[in-house]
Amino acid sequence: MSSTPSGRLAPLLRWLGLTLVVLMGLQLFGLLLSWNWDLEPFRQLFIDRLVGEAPMALVGLLLMLTAQRLEDGAGRSPFRWLVGVLAALLALAMVAAVPLSISAENALVEQAQQQDAAISQQAAQLEMQRQQVESPAFVDQLIAEAEKEGRIPATASAEEKNQKAREFIDTQIRPQLKQAEQQLAQARLGRDLAVQQRRFGGTGRAVVLAIAFVLLTLVALV
Description:
This protein is mainly alpha-helical. The protein has helices spanning 3-33, 40-72, 78-133, 136-149, 158-221.
């Protein structure tokens, strides 16, 4: 009674697993057709694609190994050797991907440091502009410019002139400063996300996957 469900489940698991492995191969095949390892962007794209699709292959190999265990028990079969060899190759690929990902991470850190210097300079300029807006001398300068351009009548009282200048600051200058601050915050966030994603989503994932594929190799072949 119990062997019939296992006999039906094993082929399904095998083909599901094989499908996942083939899907990963197809994802990489498109890059292999345009192979150009000398270009740094291609290397980064290839490593990202390899590490990103490897979990799918890991699940596929696990399904294939489970199907083989259901059919043949603990005995070694050619299919188990196939799973072990594929897992070993992917483990080697993950190990090779680690230094490449670290190199890309270092390049991102250098770019982030350059961006940080530019962001710090822009932040300092914004702070100066913010302090300038609060300065009475700046208000007087705006009033003089507005009188020269005819936006404030020369016969207006000092209180009216000051009110017009404050309205201009609140409706024109402050929104521009706020928008600039938001752009700086987005730039900082994008810089930090790029570095952290490369560190944990690239290098860290490659290390974890390398360990997982090594364990799978041992289970399949030992």
